Amino acid sequence: MSGHDITLTVNGTDETLTVEGRTLLVHALRDHLGYTGPKVGCERGKCGSCTVHLDGEPIKSCTTLAVQADGREVTTVERIADDGTLHPVQEALHEAHGLQCGFCTPGMVMTIVDLLDRESEVSRESVRHALKGNICRCTGYQKIVDGVLAVAEETEGVQVGSNDQTESDFTPAENTRTNARGGD
Ligand code: FES
Ligand code: FES
Questions:
Q1: Is the distance from CB of 105 to CB of 139 less than 8 angstroms?
Q2: SS3 at position 8
Q3: I need a labelling partner for 48 at 20 to 30 A (CA). Which of 21, 28, 30, 145 fits?
Q4: Ligand number nearest to the C-alpha of 176
Q5: Cα dihedral 84/80/102/153 (nearest 10)
């Protein structure tokens, strides 16, 4: 099978590699380049553990071919902390006891960072909606949402609205989205 030479800019570094046409971006990142932050969970676009940013947009790297990312910028969770200092999102999840396992947390962090980058107002409901593409198999989301709202309070340009949605209204299992932002 012939290989494809591609170049990815990963976390600011140009990386050239040879992949098969069928190689998924998550495998290119992990197996070819050693960026093990993105995790392989469902490999079907359902769980969000492989979430990275591609040209600044969150995507599920298990539903993206590596060749589709040729010439583009990829950001993984390894870039989120700044030289050993946790990103405010990571710090807030830590403070709220919203950090879960190393499997689901990286994808959740990538989704939350994007959420706070693009939204000027968030609420408990909108945070839950944003996280519907990130599945934890073991526990609840209450503390994660608490952490996101806490960091949103401290984020310039982001306001925190209120709503009365309850924990039981959140049903991540209903999620069928194929990328972290959903729908497309
Ligand atoms: S491994 Fe990509 S969404 Fe589950
Ligand atoms: S899958 Fe990570 S804590 Fe449940």
A1: no
A2: strand
A3: 21
A4: 1
A5: 100
Q: What percent of the chain clears pLDDT 70, i.e. is strictly above it?
A: 88
If phi over 0 gives left and psi between -120 and 50 gives alpha, with beta otherwise, what is residue 164?
alpha
pTM of the model: 0.87
The first and second tokens of residue 38, run together, are: 């993105």
pLDDT in tens, 113-133: 999 999 999 999 999 999 999
DSSP 86: P
What are the angstrom distances between the C-alpha of 14 and each of 20, 123, 158, 181?
19, 37, 32, 26
46 and 179 Cβ atoms separated by less than 8 Å: no
Our mutation pick for probing the ligand 2 site, out of 139, 141, 143, counting the most ligand atoms within 8 A of Cβ, is: 139
Instruction: Give the containing element (helix H, strand E) for 126.
Output: helix 124-130
Does ligand 1 come within 6 angstroms of the Cβ of 111? no
Residue 117 neighbours by CB under 8 Å, 6+ apart: none
Q: Are strands 51-54 and 13-19 parallel, antiparallel or unpaired?
A: unpaired
- Nearest one of 182, 58, 170 to 125, comparing CA atoms: 170
| Alpha-carbon span 88 to 156, nearest angstrom | 12
Name residues of the chain where pLDDT drops below 50: 164, 166-171, 173-184
